[in-house]
Amino acid sequence: MARVIRPETLRPETLAIHTGVYKDTAFNSVTTPIYPCSTFYFDKLGESKEYAYGRFGNPTRRALEENLAALEGGADSLATATGMAALSTAIFLMKSGDHIIAGNDIYGGTWRLLDICMPRYGIETSFVAMDDPAAIRAAIRPNTKAIMIETPSNPLLKLTDLALVSAIAKEHGLLTIIDNTFMTPLGQRPFDFGIDIVIHSTTKYINGHSDVIGGAIICKDKDLARQVQQMGICLGTVAAPFDAWLVLRGIKSFPQRMKAHWRGADAVARYLNRHPFIKRVFYPGLESHPQHELAKRQMRQFGGIVTFELDTAQIPISDFFSRLRFFKLAMSLGGVESLCEQPWSMSHDTMTEEARLAAGITPEIIRLSVGNENPEDLIDDLRYGLEGDEA
Q1: Which of 140, 154, 190, 337 has a CA 20 to 30 Å removed from the CA of 370?
Q2: Quick check: 208 and 254 in contact, CB under 8 A?
Q3: Are 153 and 105 in contact (CB under 8 A)?
Q4: CA torsion through residues 333, 8, 294, 167, sign
Q5: Catalytic residue set
Q6: What is the H or E stretch that residue 260 is in?
Q7: Per residue in 83-95, pLDDT tens?
Q8: Rounded CA gap, 337 and 360, in Å?
Q9: pTM of the predicted model, to two decimals?
């Protein structure tokens, strides 16, 4: 008789490989099959098997949802077409007249959705410094319904005290929603601190190969998960079967890839922190980071993103970018290849200039997504980028 395995007893490396996999009872495939069908036939009127129509549910998508819920430690999840689809679906839990509190230095696409799009539907957002509990409390209104969190923030890697914000939210009956894309379920477990909903862009670390766009919403509570799933069906924001299969493929190596990301980011951050052409380095793993002690309390690792401020009196930013070989100038992150970008003109250009400056985002800020290359090669690349022929 086969042994019954309980997911809660397994470690992440095992969960990533074995959750949501064994769906093929006909041929015993060790990978999850792709079910590209748009509809499923009924045995007879009024009787169908588990699935009826592709938007309502799909076996491949369901396998991914099971895997993500297990990795994050949630009750259930919804796999979506993009990270922004995940965020939009979660926000549609609100109604006209509701108010949201969010960080003032968040991803530009999130800022655009909250500041430009949602006010058309009567949902307003206050943007505050999420590392300041007093500012969060001061922003709460009678119609406030949710607090949206990015920690570390994008791109300046400021931290939000999850336990404290969760306690504030519970005092006022507010929903807490966190974008955990930067840290992943392996680096930070928001549900352990009382968070209600976790969002991911699975495009990034969870897939990790820069070959698919996807998102996910994981809920701590089953009732909340059912609301999210129904909203995803209503809005049509769900993931396509092939995309879900690609993310599942990426997840198998996810824990091992993350170890390489973390090792490389730490080495890169420490190198940049010593370089005379760098004004500041933003990385929670550095002892000089103002919230390093908080990072040690609520993060299991310090992430694969390193942000820094370049001294453009020493080297023009365009010269730095043009010299790099391995750090490709691109707007994504979390893939096995290293990327770099200027948030001012790229990932955060949809924010107003006033909003960018208020958040501390200037043209001299550079964000690195440290990939899985050898850290010494990446440091050599940055050295040449900074110093040119003198390297």
Answers
A1: 190
A2: yes
A3: yes
A4: positive
A5: 55, 107, 179, 204
A6: helix 254-274
A7: 999 999 999 999 9
A8: 27
A9: 0.95
